Amino acid sequence: MAEAEEQETGSLEESTDESEEEESEEEPKLKYERLSNGVTEILQKDAASCMTVHDKFLALGTHYGKVYLLDVQGNITQKFDVSPVKINQISLDESGEHMGVCSEDGKVQVFGLYSGEEFHETFDCPIKIIAVHPHFVRSSCKQFVTGGKKLLLFERSWMNRWKSVVLHEGEGNIRSVKWRGHLIAWANNMGVKIFDIISKQRITNVPRDDISLRPDMYPCSLCWKDNVTLIIGWGTSVKICSVKERHASEMRDLPSRYVEIVSQFETEFYISGLAPLCDQLVVLSYVKEISEKTEREYCARPRLDIIQPLSETCEEISSDALTVRGFQENECRDYHLEYSEGESLFYIVSPRDVVVAKERDQDDHIDWLLEKKKYEEALMAAEISQKNIKRHKILDIGLAYINHLVERGDYDIAARKCQKILGKNAALWEYEVYKFKEIGQLKAISPYLPRGDPVLKPLIYEMILHEFLESDYEGFATLIREWPGDLYNNSVIVQAVRDHLKKDSQNKTLLKTLAELYTYDKNYGNALEIYLTLRHKDVFQLIHKHNLFSSIKDKIVLLMDFDSEKAVDMLLDNEDKISIKKVVEELEDRPELQHVYLHKLFKRDHHKGQRYHEKQISLYAEYDRPNLLPFLRDSTHCPLEKALEICQQRNFVEETVYLLSRMGNSRSALKMIMEELHDVDKAIEFAKEQDDGELWEDLILYSIDKPPFITGLLNNIGTHVDPILLIHRIKEGMEIPNLRDSLVKILQDYNLQILLREGCKKILVADSLSLLKKMHRTQMKGVLVDEENICESCLSPILPSDAAKPFSVVVFHCRHMFHKECLPMPSMNSAAQFCNICSAKNRGPGSAILEMKK
Q1: How confident is the model over 582-610, as a mean pLDDT?
Q2: Whole-angstrom Cα distance, residue 658 to residue 635?
């Protein structure tokens, strides 16, 4: 039975996929399956004539007068033999406990499914419709309506007797009825009426649009969307009606309610059934088409459309053509659309088939995306709805996506997606790596391999490294830099690199990579040797990081040749590991490098390399003369005689002048400036620094016969030597350039000095006067004398205990106090008294300021 069901469901899906709509990229809104099991058995021998749906079960009526109760899978739970002829309609109340049935032979039955309550009646004409009150289970709602040539309302009275009332007649057979709340809607040959069961009034009449269609062949379809919204489908026309309350002022003799048509539009095909779906409509349509070969009209497959109603038209959301059994022989009246409100299930009923349509869930959505090879969208949908999907797993979708990308040749994208999809599953990672190896795309997946959590087998990483080593040295070097050294067997990779270096021993990329591998393996000596050979910038970082100073003691020259500045800084920063003596010895054969080192050492500390200052004189003279004079000035340890000898040998005048002056031979230094440099300004500056009168005399004597020198002296000598001394010695008639300007400058300098002296005198007098006034104010202030003060001589209280006795106290400005009798008598030379403690010699802070007597 299950196998047959699968085959039937598969054939239905295949046939549905043949529709034009399915060929497009639009995703269908519904999915379909045949109602099988017991339904299959029933329809093999009988034909379905009607069906009604409850949330808990289904009720199916047949042409042979049988009524079957089915579960939602189509299994038979109960069977009722109602009539030997066709069952026209079945009605259930909302509780599902009472059922009404009518048949072609005029029989009407209303009975309880779980109670003995029952009503039987046989009419003399076929009864086409029946509808029980939605709340029939209540004692106050024991009502139902039947329809043949007239519409009858049956109601049980208080004596348990049934009485009937004619609600309508005279407009042909009643062919459709729907009861919702207090409203009953029915259709006859002329149109649709609505009856209010509370007010006992018919509140509207909606006429039929296309009267050319036979109402028995193209019956009206009714359904209530809610308690006040009725949807009418008849022929190709759809009307949506809203029942509204009439305002009290408008009532008069009119019903309390009225109907407003809020939407009306035409469809392409004949309507066989209607059902609401949120704010949309599900429409079952009967389709007739014309054969291209015979040009005859034939019955095509019925269509199930979802449409969005608008005020005067509609928008098609989806449309599916359904292959139901025997559709070629069916008419419009043979199809019915029933629905379950709670679960959005739609049942397409035909004589030989019952098909269930349901809204597609997230699993169906993912199925469609996978079918259309939209794997990325499927993966995203699964991640968003992972709590709701039941048939799919995110990992399975992801693996399918990777396979699809690989098949399409998008290897880099496939490898990148592995990070997200495979996550921390090491086994899957290894499987995918081998798959990429089989297609020769290990390079594509290498950037995305996990490096921490999880860690794959070392063989995986080694396999990829070997792949790069064979074809891409730069890529190999990049992986070695980026991958932690513990991911693979370092010795295996080192050996592989060394084998390649045998073929290409000067390849810098391989050498650098080998150095990095040695570093990972803590073989720092070999790594350092390669870095130095390559003159690589990381050599200093390597030395610092791994404290390799013991390994570079014999490689100092190499380091200095590579980058002398960095090398010197490193050596000086680590004197405790490589001594200054060792560095100087290593650089003995390279004096230019030795000078660079010692110069930097001297700049850092003038005293650390004092033993090498004598050597540095020659080094500065040879390689760095501009820094020789600053060195001579700053060094206190270089031998001056040796320095003077070297400077005189090389004719370094400035340095020789400095050394002569430092050794006390200022006259020789000045002579050298005048004779060698011929620079009067420098000579004057030198004389100013020495501040020696004899030097000025020598300078004047040397310059007296040289007019340019005289001009320089006249411009600069005024503040150090009396210019008259120079002017008196100038020979008469000697032409001196700019003499007038020089004399004017001397006079201006003299006037300036006079002004400065007068200004200083005024300031001094003003300050003296201000301080004198301040001292006078201070001395005029009173001094507190009380019982706590003592005589500084006898150390007894300064004031007597008996205040009536006469006393005399002397208080000095220094705040020391004495009894007058305790002070020594003043000397004959000076009548002034002074504080013995302060021992002041002159009248001032220690002199007496107050004498108290009583």
Answers
A1: 82
A2: 13
